[in-house]
Write the structure tokens for this entry.
Amino acid sequence: MRRTGGPAVQLPGLFRRLLERIRGREQRLVRAAEHMPLLLLSYPRGRGDVAAEVEAAWARTFRSLGSAVREPYEKLFRALPPVVVVLLRPRNLCGCLGHHHPRGTESKITRRLAADLGSAIGEIDLAYESIREWQPQPLSSMAAGQLGARLNELHFQAALLAVLLHELEHLGRPEERERHVRSRSDRFYAAVMEELVSGETGGSYGMARPSPLP
Ligand SMILES: [Zn+2]
Ligand SMILES: [Zn+2]
């Protein structure tokens, strides 16, 4: 998923993998619900906090959302492989928030795992620091004032989910056009923030938009 207006340069895969081997990585398997793919998170050693955020987004936040918000992606799950490897990195050199790795371009680890399990395994990457900084939409200043730092935590949950589902949609529906995938994930982000913020504020504040009449 490209940041609007950002450049698109691919870091050679070999170089990337070499860096990862030097830094060292840890893995965590995240199970949410029967019909949702298992996520195998691979993250830099010592960044269990980031893995825990992705786990909370996938296994808790997503399932806490209203069914209308979840619905477009609930359908997508049927088109996905049963396991998806999620490579977590602070940033991508190209500036993207994430990528899906089409069939045949997965990392060696994913290909070896697929061969061992005898089933297809998907692969995506997420750039968690870029996702944390991503500001797709302004929040109402009242919500910002009331929630303070908690707002950043809610944003991170909503943004992680939006980018994760965006890349999963590319994996499951390779023929779908970017602008459709993007508009779906942008609407999803706004809807998730709306739910999370109103959950925290007792329904008083949402995203920046004209307030309803009293
Ligand atoms: Zn995309
Ligand atoms: Zn990129």
Q: What stands out?
A: The chain has eight helices and five strands. The mean pLDDT is 86. The two ends are 39 Å apart (CA to CA). The CA atoms of residues 36 and 105 lie 23 Å apart.
